[in-house]
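re the bet — no i am not wrong, look at it urself. input seq straight from the record:
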Amino acid sequence: MTMFNFLNSVEAAPKPESLSSTFTVSAHPLTDIWTNPPNTERFNAPILYRSLPLMAFQRAQVTIHGNLTQKYDQGGLILIAKEEDGTRKWIKAGLEVVHDALYLSTVSKDRGSDWAFQTVPPRLQVRDIGDDQREGR
C-alpha cells in the first residue's frame, strides 16, 4: 500500500498497515478548508493524504468516529485537484456540527466554496448503488 502523509499537522502519518484499524487525526480550533472570495481562504485543517494521478483513482471509503460537538466540528473525505498555477479545486464530504446537530455536509470549491448540508440519522451508511448492480444484487 502506498504511504500516506499529513498536511497541516505535526503528527506522524499512520503506517499503511494501521490504516485498516483505528487511528487519530487531531485538529486545532479554528482550522478549516473553506474559501469565500475575495478575502477568505482557509486551508489549514489537518489532512491525511495520498497523491495519485486522477486516472488511477477508483474509490475511497472513510469511517468517522469522533467527539464532534462544537459548531463546525467535522470529519470526512476530501478530494483535491491542484492546477498548474498552484490553485486548488476540491470537494469535501462528511459529518459536521451545524445548529447544534450532526449533519451530512458537502462543500465544493472552484472559485468560491459552495456548501450544502442535511440532517442525518445517528447511524448512516452511504453506498454506491452501482456496486449492487455490478455484483448482481
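see?? Residues 74 and 96 are 4 Å apart (CA to CA). told u. also The beta strands are 5-7, 33-36, 40-43, 47-49, 74-82, 88-98, 101-109, 113-119. so pay up
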